[in-house]
Amino acid sequence: MTSTVLPRRIRRTWLIGLGSLLRELIEANRRRRDVAQLESLPDYMLRDIGISRSEIGRTVRDGRDDRGA
After folding, report:
1. Pairwise CA distance, residues 53 & 18, whole Å
2. Quick check: 64 and 50 in contact, CB under 8 A?
3. Measured between alpha carbons, how far is residue 69 from residues 50, 53, 64 in Å?
4. What is the pLDDT along the chain (69 residues), one digit of tens a residue?
5. Interatomic CA distance for residues 55 and 28, integer angstroms
6. Which of the two ends of the chain, N or C, has the fewest CB atoms closer than 10 A to its terminal CB?
7. DSSP letter for each residue of the chain
8. pLDDT at 1
9. What are phi and psi of 67, to 5 degrees?
10. How big is the CA angle at 68 (ends 40 and 46), to the nearest 5 degrees?
11. The pTM is what?
12. pLDDT at 4
């Protein structure tokens, strides 16, 4: 008798992959939201927090490089 239920190992692997994909989607959404918030700030506020407009994407993606502020 063959079962249509996936073996436990395959199900676990599939669920781990699905969880990783979900985490990546959530993180990508957070990055888009953070970029949009920073892009909405005027230049003087960006200077106050120590980044320029051209650094927004890199800063959100990689974090700040605190250069002895």
Report:
1. 35
2. yes
3. 8, 18, 11
4. 455 566 888 888 888 999 999 999 999 999 999 999 999 999 999 999 999 999 999 999 998 776 554
5. 18
6. N
7. ----SPPHHHHHHHHHHHHHHHHHHHHHHHHHHHHHHHHTS-HHHHHHHT--GGGHHHHHHH-------
8. 43
9. -95, 55
10. 10
11. 0.70
12. 59
Two structure tokens written together for 50: 């120590």
φ/ψ of 47, rounded to 5, equals: -60, -40
Token readout for 31 is: 């990055």
Radius of gyration, alpha carbons of the chain: 21
Residues 55 and 35 sit within 8 Å (Cβ to Cβ): no
| pLDDT of the residue at 64 | 77
Q: How far apart are CA 24 and CA 55, in angstroms?
A: 22
pLDDT score recorded for residue 11 = 84
